[in-house]
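Sat 14:20. Reprocessing the chain from the morning session after the first attempt stalled halfway. Input below, unchanged.
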Amino acid sequence: MVTQAVERGSGVTLWRQIAERLSRDLLSGALKPGDRLPTELDLASRYAVNRHTVRRAVAALADQGYLRVEQGRGTFVAEHMLDYVLGRRTRFHANLEAQGREPSGRVFGARVERADAAVARELHLKAGTRVLVIEHVGEADGVPITHATHYFPAERFRGLAELYTQTTSLTAALKALGVPDYTRKVSRLSARLPSEVEARHLGQAAARPVLQAEAVNVDPEGRPIQYSITQFAGDRVQLVVEPDTV
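Finished this time. Tokens:
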């Protein structure tokens, strides 16, 4: 690697000089959205500084939204913010495909438990009724953007977890179990800091906020079939609320 030593004694701090050089690479296209940056050690060698100086420069650019740091994977040039539409028919795959992004995801947890008062109220069930809980991470072009916990009436949706895992599409899985269509009855939006588990699954720092959406979906007869709590990576997604349409 060619050394590009920064100027010492110039009156501009070393970390800021590095941030400016990286910014020029971003503006010139030398670094493109989705590109992985060299490691801290490589950058420290390139600029003949210590890793702490590099870390501060990278953190400054991440705070400005130019870079994103994924825990365990590295630092990447931030992609364009994804518009995630919340409307009467909110569909993960359709949302991403409409913007030319490749949807994918994985179920990382599935279990049956007794509904507490909050879950029972949203699904119009009695407290203590058995509900299926599915935990899922959604990705756009292989980058995690959502961490979701979904609740379903367990007796009605036997085998849903397996179908969801196989198809990676909740719409397809529900259709196979006799729900040809569903619509969103309510959405509640908020923002907060993620838990350690949420941050790990989203590949982001725990100090960066997530957007949270609580949602209830109903079948064509108006019966609640799904209650979801979804965290969106706040620096990769912006939520767009559309007026209700038929």
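Residues 14-77 form a domain with the Arc Repressor Mutant, subunit A fold (CATH 1.10.10.10).
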